[in-house]
Amino acid sequence: MRIERLSKQAWRRLKKIRLRALLDAPDAFGTTHEEAETWPDEVWLRQAADLPTFIATAGTVDVGFVRISPEGHAPEDAELISMWVAETARGRGVAEALGDAVVAFAREAGVKRVLLTVADSNTRAIALYERLGFRPTGVTGAYPPPREHITEHERAFVI
Q: What is each CA distance from 66 to 10, 22, 63, 122, in whole angstroms?
């Protein structure tokens, strides 16, 4: 397995893996596949340019990705978003490697705290984030409509 940072020119690759993730795990993301599928190419290009994205590859196949948004609650915060690993690669350390890549990037960028939100029902992701050192902050919420029935909570990794 290899972890690489996606270049902004590779926005089509981001689109492909993000749409796969939304189909595979629809309740793990705030955005739906139906919404993302309608986005114009400019949205994907902007995301690839503005959100550092790390891709996990096994051989020649992309098997996971994660992004980090520089926008947090405070200027020294960033947010881990869009973590996903293909079912065939789960349980093999891919998610841990992607999480480590985000934390290393944040540390290098001078970020003091990496935040994330996770669905309360996603016990496997919660266990992963706990292993990586992300702790609950006490902040809770819910997904946007039409999935407002899915509750979530925030976690933070302090660097």
A: 15, 13, 11, 16
> pTM for the whole thing?
0.94
How long is the chain?
159
**pLDDT (tens digit per residue) in 41-92:** 999 999 999 999 999 999 999 999 999 998 767 889 999 999 999 999 999 9
Going by C-alpha positions, the residue among 8, 96, 112 that lies closest to residue 51 is 8
CB 83 within 8 Å of CB 76: no
Task: For residue 73, count other CB atoms closer than 10 A to its CB.
Answer: 13
Instruction: Quickly count: other Cβ atoms within 10 Å of residue 47's Cβ.
Output: 20
All domains in the chain, ordered by first residue:
2-158 (3.40.630.30)
